[in-house]
Amino acid sequence: MANFMFENGTRLYWGTGVEEEAGKLCREFALTDTVMTVSYAEGPLRPLVERVIGYLEAEGLKVVEYNDVVPNPLLDKTREAIQTAKEQGVGMTLGIGGGSCIDVAKAIALGTRLEKDIWEVYSGEARPDEVLPVGAIMTLAGTGSETSPFAVLTNTEEVSKIGYGCTEMRPRFALLNPELTFGVPAYQTMCGACDIFAHICDAYLGRIEDMKLTSRLSESVMKTVIEYLPAALEKPDDYEARSQLMLCGTLAMGKFASMGLYTNLGLHTIAEDLGAIYNVTHGAALSVILPAWMTYLKKEKFHLLLRYAREVWNLDINVDHPEKTVDAAIRKTKEFFAGVGLPVTLSELGIDFEKDGKMLSERINCTEDYGDAYIALTPEDVYEIYRLASK
What we know:
With 391 residues, the protein is α/β, with parallel strands linked by helices. It contains 14 helices and eight strands. It folds into two domains: 11-180, Rossmann fold, CATH 3.40.50.1970; 185-390, Dehydroquinate synthase-like - alpha domain (Dehydroquinate synthase-like, alpha domain, Up-down Bundle), CATH 1.20.1090.10.
C-alpha cells in the first residue's frame, strides 16, 4: 500500500429537492453578497438555473449570471468571466450542470482575486492567491468534479488542455439530486459513465498491485456502471439507475477508490489532448483510448488485468493460456462501450491515424519526470496506443 493523505472537505447533500438548499448554503459560504452562477445559456438546464437564482435571491444575495460555458471549457471565455466577477465583486461561484460548468466555476473562483493571469497558475509559473468558495449543483453523472479540487481548461492558442487543482478549489458543498439527470441526452449519459470507468482505471491499473480493499471498491464501481448504464439509457427517468451512476461518479473522482494506490494519469492525458485538438467529448475520447491503453499495458499490468477479467467481467481464467482471458476482458470492455453507442476507434472520432498519428504521439510526455502519477510512456509508446485505437 502506498503512503497517502486523504482529504475531502465537500459537504454532500443527496436526494430529491436538495437543490432548494442552494440559497442558504451560498449565504453561509459567500465572502460577499454577490454570487456568480455558472451554467449554459440555453437548453434543458435553464428552468433549473432560474429556480436556483430564486433561491439565492430569497436569501438576499445578488446574482451575476455567467452562462457562456462550452464543453471542453475555454481559457479565453474563462478569462472574460473572471473579469466580470472582479468588476461585480463576486464572493462565491456556483456551478450548475455537469463537469464543464463545475470546472469553470472553480476556475473563476481561482482567478477572481488573482493578480496574475490564471494561465500562469495552470502552467506552474505562479501560485494561487485567495480562492473564492465554490458550490456545485450536479446534473450529470461522470467527472466527479463536485468533490474534486481540479478544473480543466483548454488553451486554443497553445492547443493544450490541462488541469490544475488546489484544496481551496474543492466545492464547499455539492447538491446531488438524481432527478436532475433525467433529461441528460443519451450520448452525454454514456460519455459520463465512460469517464467514471476511466477514472477508476487510472488507479486500478496504476503502480500498486496489492491494495485489495481499494481494488475491490474499484471493481464494484466498474460493475455498477456496467449494470446500470444500459438501464439509464433504456429508461432515462429510472431513479435507481441514475442514482447508482451519480454515486459512482462521486466515488471515482473523490479519491475514495484510489486510497493506497498511485494514480496513473497517462490515459486521461492522451484523451484530454484529443479534446484540445479535435474538441472531442472527453468520455468519447476515453472509450476509444481505454481498450487500446489496456492492450498496451498488458505485459506490465498482466496480473491486474487478469484480476479485472475475473472480478469485473466474471470470466473464468484459462489456466493454460491466461493471456487469452486478459484479451477477452479487454474485448468485452470495447464491446460494452460499442454496445451502448460509444465510439471505439479513432476513425469514429473523425481522426485519421495515418495522417495524424505521428503528430499526436509527439505531443504527449508521460515520463518518469512526473513521478508517481504516470507509468512512463514515450512518444513511441503513445504512437502504438494510437495505432491500437485505430483498429
